[in-house]
Amino acid sequence: MKSRKETLEEFVAADPNDSFSRYALALELEKEGEEANAVVQFRQVIDRDSSYVAAYYHLGKVLARTGHDDEARDVYRKGLIAAVAANDRRTSTEIQEALDALD
User: Taking the model in full, what pTM does it have?
Assistant: First the structure.
């Protein structure tokens, strides 16, 4: 039986522009402790779909946890702009709180 990660990798391979599948893969990689691969996938979600605001929050979280605070701040700031533009109050609040926690 295939793992969740393998299934998600197949979804991404079948449709590289599917933000949801790539985001889900990044979350799974993060959960499995594959932070570097998770960062790559979160960045690709954002590069392909800059309005996918949850990806900024999780990318920033992984970067901060792995000691890349300056990069995390930059990602959080961009995510805050995207979340406000999308009128996503919940995510903008989460990102602001994460940014405040870094400062």
Answer: 0.94
